[in-house]
Write a structure and sequence with these properties.
globular, Chloramphenicol Acetyltransferase, alpha+beta, three-stranded antiparallel beta sheet, 2 domains
Amino acid sequence: METKLLSYAQNEILQIEQYYENTSINNIAGIMHMRNGLEYAEINAAFNALVESHDSFRLQVTRHDGEYKQYVTDFQYHDYPYLDFFEDEVGYNKWRNETARKNIFELDEQLFKCVLLRFPEGHNGLFLLQHHLISDGWSMTLAVNFLIRKLAGKNTEEDARASYLDTIATETKYEQSPRFNKDKQFWLEKLENFENNTLFEKTTLDSAVGKRRSFSLSNADTKRIKDFCENNQISISNLYSSV
């Protein structure tokens, strides 16, 4: 088994995982509704194609002699579980919320959870939960786009060109470059008075639960936001970040 070092970003995520052990702080969840009559076999085959094409889904973390490393497992076709919540809104909401909050980090195990669903309204879709070690908000978007093209019968070969392990090679090359030493010296001088600061402060509750407020927008407000973004050629996420 060939192992690779974790990237800088992955090491930071792993530190957070160890700090807030057995929480959902590193979970990235997404739900995909398919109201076009697609059946289990079609959706399951498309998701298997996604896993086969993107090695990030096959990354697993191991530990040897106190050091964490990662490796890519061979692809194996899998029949993902299917849950039927037809006309069961309460049961669906309970399952969704409980599942999204489960910690899915395990050594030498897959770092995602996929469940195919029949939603209370009657159409099919899927629930995808990924660990931040292998995914972020943008890669979740790429995964959904891949599934849409695959299910629509369009070409998906371009999506399979990049490997997450290319990031490791790029970082290694950077570490051996003169630019790295220059950047390192810059940040050492910039942060010389921050030695005693920590990224996270321990609280009395040791809780990783966020304090989030949710707002439901009307269809009219949603359309105005989308129109504004389209007219100004910006994404909704960039608009919200700017606000």
